[in-house]
Amino acid sequence: MASEPRASSDANRKRMIPAYVKAISGSLGGTVEACCLQPIDVIKTRLQLDRSGAYKGIVHCGTTIVKTEGVRALWKGLTPFATHLTLKYTLRMGSNAMFQSAFKDPETGKLSNTARLLSGFGAGVLEALVIVTPFEVVKIRLQQQRGLSPEHLKYKGPIHCARTIIREEGLRGLWSGAAPTVMRNGTNQAAMFTAKNTFDVLLWKKHEGDGKDLQPWQSMISGFLAGTAGPVCTGPFDVVKTRLMAQSRHGGELKYKGMVHAIQTIFKEEGLLALWKGLLPRLMRIPPGQAIMWAVADQVTGFYERKFLRNAPV
């Protein structure tokens, strides 16, 4: 009798999709997402950095950029953004799978909602510290520059930007805004992974490892819905992150001394709603981005399930 629970546990363990498969699915999804949604990210960054009210909204910001800087300006920072997304999703999906494997019940192989939240939060914290912060510092510094003529730009490209930051501000400059980034990404991924699983079960009766195929449009709906809550909850962290990353330590005093000081300063000078600046473009970017990413990722994991898990019991 003692061998039966162990056999059941082994069967559940075999039905889990390996972390490397999840990592590959995330990298492919991140590449496609970056190419599709970079213009919205540029507009979001410009709106968040706009203190003078130069842009009247999303459409006005986009048309102003195109009119004054050309269409190519909407893809400013694409190289670090695409690299950053690809690496981020690889680490996020892979580490989340590893955390879930560690947190699941050893007897039943099941994952509780608390364990799923902790796995997502852990993956978010890890990606924030290892990948997101330095890449976003470079991306934001490039995006805040106006114009396309290289001789008039301080940063000539992502590599030059990173080298300049290190030379002028030290290696620590690449991790400006790390605290709000950790809070934003940890909270986002805890909510996103839990919500994605919930919507898959509720809408499509899809359980991981059951061998059931999800159509791309089904993955897109689940991913879109899962990606909506995070931006609303983490808006202040995103604004503070952008402000901290955009300011340079080279010459002069820093306006924002840290996460808490930045929140207090923005609230005092610009009002409460300023902490949610750029929310609409975030909602235009993140849920569609999650829809695109999951449509690709679920096809990769679905292929693995069809090949190796089709006959596994639910």
Automatic annotation (TrEMBL):
GO MF terms, alphabetically ordered: succinate:fumarate antiporter activity
Key words, A-Z: Membrane, Mitochondrion, Repeat, Transmembrane, Transmembrane helix, Transport
GO CC field: mitochondrial membrane
Locations listed in the record: Mitochondrion membrane
Membrane-protein topology: Multi-pass membrane protein
Cross-referenced InterPro entries: MCP_dom_sf, MCP_transmembrane, TXTP-like
Solcar repeats mapped onto the chain: 17-102, 114-202, 214-303
Cross-referenced Pfam families: Mito_carr (PF00153)
Matching PANTHER family: SUCCINATE/FUMARATE MITOCHONDRIAL TRANSPORTER-RELATED, SUCCINATE_FUMARATE MITOCHONDRIAL TRANSPORTER
Sequence similarity: Belongs to the mitochondrial carrier (TC 2.A.29) family.
Protein name: Mitochondrial succinate-fumarate transporter 1
Gene designation per UniProt: LOC115745756
